Amino acid sequence: MLSCDDDRVLSFLLSLNPMEQVVTPHLEGLSIDKEGVMMLEKGLLHLDLQNIKYLTLQGFNDIHDSDAASVFDFFPKVPLPNLLMLVVVDSAFKEIFPSKMPEILHSQLLVRALELRNLHKLESIGLQHTWVASSNLASLKVEGCASLKYLFTSSAAKCLVQLQQLQVSNCEALESLMVDYQPHDDDHDVIIFKKLKKLSLSQIPKLESFYKGKSTLNFPSLKEVEVTECNRLEYLFTFSTAKCLQSLHEMKISKCESLETLVLATQEVDKSHEDLITFSDLENLSFSQLPKLESFYKGNSTLNFPSLKEVEVTECNRLEYMFTFSTAKSLHKLWYMKISKCESLKTVVLAEADEPHELTFSKLWKLSLSESPKLGSFFTGKSTLKFQAYLYIEISQCKIMKTFSHGDVEAPKLQMVKIDGASCWIDNVGKHIFCSCR
């Protein structure tokens, strides 16, 4: 089988005598530039494209306003009935899919994967057009598209029922992932990304939110969220969206200068007295370099993390506490916690007025607290803390921390406490820990 997925193969084909016939009945992959397409149209290059599944278009940079603005305007005579993956790179196209289906296509396009890189003039992907059959799209990757302001309309989003992976990076003008196709008054409309598993957003300086419309977004299968360098983003999820994140497994957020909270509280939600958001499958949580982050949620609701295993938080300088007592009660599986360089952090677990008599950490074995100058204690309340697993505690450069907890601490399997580099083996990790080790 001949697969033209390498520039060297394409160069070889283009170097052949124009009169030579090249028959490739099993060709499935092709990387081609504008010159190659023109040779195909003029009959100077003979390739059987009926079985093409993977197509890369690159180097269409000399496109003027008078030329075709769409990818498919360059394929008036080239049928691609079996195309599954389309990659468009280093080109000046203004749109990928035009509003009208190209004449050469006799049925909907069945592309499963779409990758767009370094398309500096791209203004529209065009997934909303019916002939595109966006219901087949499983993977969408967009990188370096400086003129793109949104990815798809709300009408197109409703068709993305197979979308499993969405990755967007280095898009300077992007303000929102999705916009309403036309204004509507239905506040109860729900857009479900049924199969989306991975969402990755990076270096999108104008991104303010995933979606600015009135519809509710639902991600029932979302497992992994990674967001970095989105400096206008103030929150990640609305309350209604967060309630449906039942499959979320991992969340990494970093270098978002305006991010204030994980879940946005609304006046309507607080009035409805809904009091619980449960991230039932979330195991890994990492926050770093979020200078305005104040809390996970600012409203009256409680966040639960029953599956959370690892937490790492660093350089979140407005964060005054990690968990409320109510949230900490759900941390049954937490085994590793590291907090560092949080300038305003006063405590890890914040006491509440109606807290019960004890708080148990069943699995926690490693606790690391460092370079947090205002940290006064791990827990501000008087309830008994119970640590049931083998426990290692490391505390460094937390200079005003004089007590671990204001109540009793039971840690029968305590292995070691290290404070500012000095190791201690003691029976009680409570009020006298710092007197013993300093």
UniProtKB/TrEMBL annotation:
<protein>
    <recommendedName>
        <fullName>Disease resistance protein At4g27190-like leucine-rich repeats domain-containing protein</fullName>
    </recommendedName>
</protein>
<dbReference type="InterPro" id="IPR057135">
    <property type="entry name" value="At4g27190-like_LRR"/>
</dbReference>
<keyword id="KW-0611">Plant defense</keyword>
<feature type="domain" description="Disease resistance protein At4g27190-like leucine-rich repeats">
    <location>
        <begin position="243"/>
        <end position="343"/>
    </location>
</feature>
<dbReference type="InterPro" id="IPR032675">
    <property type="entry name" value="LRR_dom_sf"/>
</dbReference>
<dbReference type="InterPro" id="IPR050905">
    <property type="entry name" value="Plant_NBS-LRR"/>
</dbReference>
<feature type="domain" description="Disease resistance protein At4g27190-like leucine-rich repeats">
    <location>
        <begin position="49"/>
        <end position="172"/>
    </location>
</feature>
<dbReference type="Pfam" id="PF23247">
    <property type="entry name" value="LRR_RPS2"/>
</dbReference>
